[in-house]
Automatic annotation (TrEMBL):
Domain (Ferritin/DPS): residue spans on this chain: 28-165
Protein name: Dps family protein
Transmembrane segments: none
Record Gene3D superfamilies: 1.20.1260.10
InterPro entries reported for this sequence: DPS_DNA-bd, DPS_DNA-bd_CS, Ferritin-like, Ferritin-like_SF, Ferritin_DPS_dom
Lineage summary: Bacteria, Bacillati, Actinomycetota, Actinomycetes, Kitasatosporales
Span list, region Disordered: 170-190
Pfam families (alphabetical): Ferritin
Family: Belongs to the Dps family.
Length: 190
């Protein structure tokens, strides 16, 4: 999990924010950085391991998401640095501090991957929403950055869900709780 805020309290920060409050923001952003770095790698994994009749559409849809998620990670890391913190972007820091497991789907049909990816996006988006709420109590600049990320992540999830939705608006993977369950339901569609 995240380090205690006192471990993240910088020696200096941006004008108008107390050092302890900056430490809270650094902690929030640190977990967003880990989530974004993990999402970037997960998206590339999907890009490399997708197969089936929807291969080209999904393969080409994923790369712009990868690029934007990498930009978001850079934004989060640079905000951490501006607040006086250290942006821990190493794999070891990500693995040691994350609260989620690795993406669990290997080579699979495009729709199976998208079904599992929908759950990944849900987890990332829920984390960003919680961070937006907490950042909003401290700093509008950090809150604004996170809201921008949230907008793009929700759009990417919409792109994914469009492949999983019926004309009547029902999500084929509704009610699933694990990537494996979602992928199995998605494979039935594919």
């Amino acid at each position: 999990m995240t380090k205690a805020n006192n471990d993240l309290t910088p020696k200096y920060t941006v004008p108008g924010i107390e050092r302890e409050a900056a430490g809270r923001l650094i902690g929030l952003l640190r977990m967003r950085l880990h989530a974004l770095n993990d999402l970037h790698l997960t998206l590339k994994h999907v890009h490399w391991n997708v197969v089936g009749p929807h291969f080209v559409a999904v393969h080409e849809m994923i790369d712009p998401q990868v690029d934007r998620v990498r930009e978001m990670a850079d934004d989060a890391a640079e905000r951490i640095a501006a607040l006086g913190g250290v942006a821990q972007g190493t794999p070891g820091a990500l693995v040691n501090e994350r609260s989620w497991d690795d993406y669990s789907i290997g080579r699979a049909d495009a729709i199976a991957h998208l079904a599992a990816l929908d759950l990944v996006y849900t987890g990332v988006i829920e984390g960003v929403r919680a961070a937006v709420k907490e950042a909003g109590e401290i700093d509008p600049a950090t809150e604004d950055l996170l809201i921008e990320h949230l907008r793009d992540l929700e759009q990417f999830q919409w792109f994914v869900r469009a492949h999983l939705e019926s004309a009547g608006g029902t999500l084929a993977t509704g009610g699933t709780h694990t990537e494996q369950e979602a992928a199995a339901k998605g494979a039935e569609l594919g």
